[in-house]
């Protein structure tokens, strides 16, 4: 019998089951390490049902105060979004490879945006409250600084996708760098930019409703207080107010984004 | 040379278009309404710069070395919470995703009910649910994991449903033609096609959950956030910088990793 | 007047590809020159250098007695209009705004950031649009127009610059024969009536023959032919399009290449 010149290709090895088992084993260890006891959770199903039944009689007697707090929450989110938009608008062209003046500015702008994105907004809010005092202003600032990172990265990535020829054509008229950004850059991505800004506004309304936990204004603190005092009826009312406003914003921004495209 | 000539916008009548004017009026009006309510005050901002600087000066001190082991433990706890919450959510949202996708849902009623359930679950931020669960099961990572999984299911289920809906129908007809059953069609025809999308959204959510887990401690639901808030309250300035850096590093690391994986999968 | 001269220009790209090997050539003011040659011969690179879109690796490019360098790019570009194969209009802006980008170099920074233009900028833009016969489409979105119309807007944008030189990089390669004819006619007329120096890269030798007063043949980054259109015969044609072995497909007639 003749020997094969080369050995036949091995049957492709499917690593999926091994990865899956490793994953499960890891989760098992994690559960032990965190000391989470899911048994108590299961035994406590009845207790849980009883617990959640306490929320079934919302008490709206202080509705006007809640609405006022919610208005503050929305106002904080709006200004946070504006701060984010303006910051991203200025930084994004520097963080887009095709519009940036140089490699150094590109890296600096990119890293700045990454840094902003990496700091959770509530931690920023803690810091700004320490520096500025209590109130919605540090909250708006924290939301703005954090989401500027998201918006800026999104804008920059979209600017980078613009047809090279279009940018060249405007450059070729003798336009300055900022004119190229303003005439070839932004108009080409305007819709996407507005759409994502609306999405960020949506997200900011959500986050603004918990900023109160660190003293940065809005409805969050009230919820925290009523829960700590076991006033479940009022908590339920607050949760309903937050929920409905968030859903309205969600619906509105989805509708507007749909209109844009 | 011709600076005296009138200025105009490049439109038919030289004025900005109605749509632009309306948009600016609405946005401007909203922001003007919001400014006093959100206590926007540039003067206060400027006035607080010295305080911000002195605060930054305070935290730029020699970090508390003895705290480092505890910091490491808390960071691991944060990561563990992220992993377990994301895994639980993954297991729950996979079937929910099929129920919430137009083309795989067994019945329009099921579709609408699942979709509404998902949008309810993701509507409120994790911290609100964390508050509720903390008051139900007490302090610790458990309420945090519960809150995180709960909200994540809302997002993940929706993402999964959306990627199932855009699956190409032809290979599915092929599998159906061979007499495969309802569940078989879904596992062998839809799942493989939607897989890259699934992995993409899971990575995105992992990223998001790590950030969320880092702040759940604010309400006592486990993770590094608790240490951060305590350090602030007790003026343990030598810990704040370490915590902030640790969060920045781990979030950035995961961000880069998941960006790398996403690039390979999609 | 705006004479253009290239002296010993070479261009080597980052990937090691050498597009031009020591090209020296002058363009007389107010002439229409066609550059022909196979794909990859360096036609586009040569043209783009006159506008500073590429800078030479060695040698120098002079436009109206200014050596093009990194520092005077904007100044040179102001004098040199360019139109492209794919028109390169900003598709979401109106035709008028696209033409007005040709006026940006005359505008103040603040004004241009706010999209504000002076009356005379508008007049120049209207005249340019009238010149290319698209005055009635001024307020349409640029991507609503057909290919030929978009190329006309491209020409109007270049004219609004009040340039002394007009470069055209494969202006008709994506257009049908009738429209191509019209665009070439328009370029010829701009050259004759305004005394603007026009340089056109072309794939179609017949168009070069009919509309240019001078034809330059490029092959592998070197000038292999330079003369009047009627000197172009089969022998010179072979000389220009002769590439070693592999480039048979590059000699196909233009319509096939149009969407390559």
Walk me through the structure:
The complex is a heterotrimer of chains A (261), B (266) and C (260). Chain A is mostly helical. Chain A contains eleven helices and no strands. Chain A has one domain (60-260): Orthogonal Bundle (MetI-like fold). Chain A has helices spanning 16-34, 38-43, 45-53, 63-91, 103-118, 121-132, 136-160, 164-171, 177-211, 220-228, 232-260. In chain A, α6 (121-132) crosses α7, α7 (136-160) crosses α9 and α9 (177-211) packs antiparallel against α11 (232-260). The longest helix of chain A is centred in the last third of the chain and has 35 residues, at 177-211. Chain B is mostly helical and 266 residues long. Chain B has one domain: MetI-like fold, CATH 1.10.3720.10. In chain B, α7 (141-165) packs across α9 (182-216). The relative contact order of chain B is 0.11. Chain C is α/β, with parallel strands linked by helices and 260 residues long. Chain C has a single domain (4-247), classed as Rossmann fold, CATH 3.40.50. Chain C is 35% helix and 23% strand. Chain C has helices at 43-50, 73-79, 95-100, 109-113, 119-131, 147-160, 177-194, 205-211, 234-241, 254-257, and strands spanning 4-12, 18-27, 32-36, 58-63, 66-67, 80-83, 117-118, 165-169, 197-201, 214-219, 222-227. In chain C, a hairpin with a 2-residue loop joins β10 (214-219) and β11 (222-227). At the A-B interface, α1, α3, α4, α5 and α6 of A face α1, α3, α4, α5 and α6 of B. β1 of chain B pairs antiparallel with β7 of chain C, so a sheet runs across the interface.
């Amino acid at each position: 019998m003749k020997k094969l010149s080369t050995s036949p290709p091995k049957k492709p090895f499917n690593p999926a089951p091994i990865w899956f088992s490793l994953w499960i084993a890891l989760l098992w260890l994690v559960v032990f390490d965190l000391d989470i006891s899911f048994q108590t959770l299961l035994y406590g199903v009845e207790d849980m049902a009883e617990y959640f039944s306490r929320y079934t009689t919302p008490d709206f007697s202080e509705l006007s105060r809640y609405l006022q707090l919610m208005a503050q929450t929305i106002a904080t989110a709006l200004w946070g979004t504006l701060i984010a938009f303006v910051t991203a608008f200025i930084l994004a062209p520097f963080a887009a490879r095709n519009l940036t003046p140089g490699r150094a500015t590109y890296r600096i702008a990119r890293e700045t945006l990454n840094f902003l994105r990496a700091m959770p907004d509530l931690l920023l809010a803690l810091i700004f409250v320490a520096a500025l005092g209590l109130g919605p202003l540090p909250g708006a600032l924290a939301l703005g600084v954090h989401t500027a990172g998201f918006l800026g990265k999104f804008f920059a990535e979209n600017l980078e996708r613009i047809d090279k020829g279009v940018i060249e054509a405007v450059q070729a008229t003798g336009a300055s760098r900022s004119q190229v950004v303003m005439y070839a850059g932004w108009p080409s991505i305007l819709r996407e930019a507005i759409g994502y800004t609306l999405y960020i506004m949506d997200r900011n309304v959500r986050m603004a409703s918990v900023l109160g936990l660190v003293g940065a204004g809005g409805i969050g603190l009230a919820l925290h207080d009523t829960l700590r005092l076991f006033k479940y009826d009022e908590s339920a009312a607050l949760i309903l107010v937050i929920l409905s406003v968030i859903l309205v914003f969600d619906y509105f921004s989805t509708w507007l984004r749909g209109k844009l495209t | 040379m011709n600076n005296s000539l009138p200025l105009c916008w490049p439109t038919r009548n030289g004025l900005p278009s109605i749509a632009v004017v309306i948009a600016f009026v609405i946005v401007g009006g909203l922001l003007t309404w919001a400014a006093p309510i959100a206590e926007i005050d540039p003067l206060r901002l400027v006035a607080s710069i010295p305080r911000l600087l002195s605060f930054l000066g305070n935290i730029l001190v020699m970090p508390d070395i003895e705290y480092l082991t505890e910091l490491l433990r808390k960071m691991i706890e944060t990561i563990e919470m992220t992993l377990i919450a994301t895994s639980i959510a993954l297991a729950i949202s996979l079937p929910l995703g099929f129920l919430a996708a137009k083309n795989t849902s067994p019945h329009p009623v099921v579709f609408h009910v699942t979709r509404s359930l998902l949008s309810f679950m993701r509507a409120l931020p994790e911290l609100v649910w964390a508050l509720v669960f903390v008051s139900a099961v007490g302090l610790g990572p458990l309420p945090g994991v519960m809150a995180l999984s709960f909200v994540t299911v809302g997002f993940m289920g929706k993402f999964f449903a959306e990627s199932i809906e855009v699956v190409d129908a032809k290979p599915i007809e092929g599998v159906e033609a061979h007499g495969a059953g309802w569940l078989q069609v879904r596992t062998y025809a839809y799942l493989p096609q939607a897989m890259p999308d699934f992995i993409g959204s899971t990575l995105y959510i992992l990223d998001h959950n790590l950030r969320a887990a880092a702040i759940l401690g604010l309400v006592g639901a486990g993770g590094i956030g608790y240490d951060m808030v305590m350090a602030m309250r007790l003026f343990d300035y030598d810990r704040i910088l370490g915590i902030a850096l640790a969060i920045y590093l781990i979030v950035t690391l995961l961000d880069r990793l998941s960006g790398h994986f996403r690039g390979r999968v999609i | 007047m705006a004479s253009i001269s290239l002296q010993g220009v070479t261009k080597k790209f980052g990937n090691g590809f050498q597009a031009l090997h020591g090209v020296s050539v002058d363009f007389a003011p107010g002439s229409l020159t066609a550059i022909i040659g196979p794909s990859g011969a360096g036609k586009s690179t040569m043209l783009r250098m006159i506008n500073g879109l590429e800078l030479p690796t060695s040698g120098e490019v002079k436009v109206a007695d200014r050596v093009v360098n990194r520092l005077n790019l904007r100044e040179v570009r102001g004098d040199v209009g360019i139109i492209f194969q794919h028109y390169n209009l900003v598709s979401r802006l109106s035709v008028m705004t696209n033409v007005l980008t040709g006026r940006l170099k005359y505008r103040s920074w603040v004004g241009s950031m706010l999209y504000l233009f002076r009356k005379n900028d508008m007049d120049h833009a209207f005249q340019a649009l009238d010149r290319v016969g698209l005055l009635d489409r001024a307020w349409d979105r640029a991507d609503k127009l057909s290919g030929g119309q978009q190329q006309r807007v491209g020409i109007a944008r270049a004219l609004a610059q009040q340039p002394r030189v007009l470069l055209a990089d494969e202006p008709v390669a994506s257009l049908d024969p009738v429209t191509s004819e019209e665009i070439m006619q328009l370029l010829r007329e701009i050259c004759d009536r305004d005394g603007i120096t026009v340089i056109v890269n072309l794939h179609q030798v017949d168009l070069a023959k009919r509309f240019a007063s001078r034809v330059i043949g490029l092959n592998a980054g070197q000038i292999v032919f330079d003369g009047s259109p009627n000197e172009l015969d089969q022998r010179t044609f072979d000389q220009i399009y002769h590439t070693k072995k592999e480039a048979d497909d590059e000699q196909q007639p233009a319509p096939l290449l149009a969407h390559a």
